[in-house]
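Entry 14. Structure prediction run on the chain below.
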Amino acid sequence: MKTKERVHNAISAGLVQLASRQRADGGFGPVVFSAALIANCLGEFPDDRAKKICDGTCVFLLDQKRAESSWNYQVKSDKQHRAYPELISYPDDLDDTSRAFLALAKTQSIKEADWAWFVHHLTDNETAPGGPYCTWLNVDKEKWSDIDPVVNSAIAETLAIINIDTPGLTKYLEDILEKSLTGSDPSSSSFSSNYYHLPYFFWWSMSRWYRGEKKDLFVKQLTKIFINVHDKTWQALLASSLIRLGGIGAVTERFILDLCKQIEEKLYQLQNTDLYIEKIDSCNETTYAHSDDVTLAIKLEGLFLYASNTDQREKIHQEIVGRVKRNKSFTEALDLVLLHDANHSITLLPYDTLYQLIDPNLIKTHHLERAGALGAASLLGWIAHRIYDDIFDDGHKTQLLHVARLAENYARQAYGAAYSSLYDSYVSRMITAEISNGLSLKYLAEKSIGHSLSVRLMCDYLTNELGEKTTARLTEQLDLFFYHYLIARQLCDDAHDQEEDARRGKMTLFAKITDPDQAVALIKKHLYLADQALSDRRLYHLKKLLQPLISGIESVKIDNEKKIPFLCHYTQDFPFS
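Output returned:
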């Protein structure tokens, strides 16, 4: 089953489960917070079942609204209090009130009078003009003077939906955000909250609205933390945060499939109560807010955001391919190129780079149009490259030469007149490398150097947004990354093609390596150097290009051990730098 289908199945099953657990009044359990948070998680789902769940929670939340348009952690029914005698009575608070406002805003259920009360509560609870704000409403401030970062983030998110910016509140939250991101172990960070004992939910809440100057640090540190966290609930909150902030490159397909598996297993446990107590302790996850329903909604949100992003990528990819397919001459070569590009890196690297380099909220139509043009140019360039490569390998395959030249002309137009000479220089470098058979590392890297051009030009196109110094620094990192990546990639390709190359009498740099361990070491070296070349987290999405090569290293070693005797006679030294 493909990842996309697996994700959609898990979301569908999860929504069915939540719908079955929702009470007749629209709530989930004895507290208001659970219903509001579930609605926050599902509020962007286009699925009718999710909308029905959210509509139910909104009916519940409106019923729970107090006289001054505030909400309490607990339900207000005396019957509910008798059903849950362990509950302690608390005053109304700005945490549940903000979460309720955010849920109701999705269904346009908030009236002007409600907003007036919200502003009144903020004014009454502010510790300084514009925040931060105390948590509890209508209380003795000397006894209830608590100021909580997560509550204040919920307030900031609520204000963001009506385009109100409070610099004092933002500064307060930025300072806490920076401190909370220190180190790679969240349990030992300086984050402090009376209600949220670890910073994961704070980060999740901040990611839903914050796009300030600490955003780059935010994404960089969350990426490091995400790699080292193993609790599935915390991972889901981190994944959602990263995707919202434009850091989807850190959210691997492997994690998403594992999350699907966790949801499937948990649903099985919930639906088979005899197994629930026995197996629940073995699950490496936190039950958030003591609620299986809230925990499930958090995971479903992570899957939905991932699916939405990948669905959009697939749509862009298909549009680019459709543009190229209009010329029937390209069909045969196009199919071969796409066959070996399952992750759509040829067409979508400019698009992915765009979303990494600037805030998604600032992306305009002309940015997307340029990314699409560069994706098409890259695809056309690969068609030409594929045909030229076949001609160099087999001189009799010249019948498609005119197609290669036509693809080149279209690519040159797509890159734009300002870059036609740069494109021509790249083509010249690739042809020179082909003629040399890649018998040095420099030529090995340049055999496919055109793969880097679309990314470089996307950076160049964003010079006004990034600044010249930043663009120059990113370009330098790109050149170094692609140099080492393309060497490793070409060595892997040559390893798999070595017998065919030998039969054609073609000598490659890889064929000169007689020691399998030495061959693997050379590939690993350049994969490592490629990884290290990217010091700017905005280019981390390119690291996914390395993963298939890392996974295929062992097969390279096996292929090399089976080298035909003809190749084993070559003992000539080869360069390592």
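The radius of gyration is 28 Å.
Filed with the rest of this week's runs.
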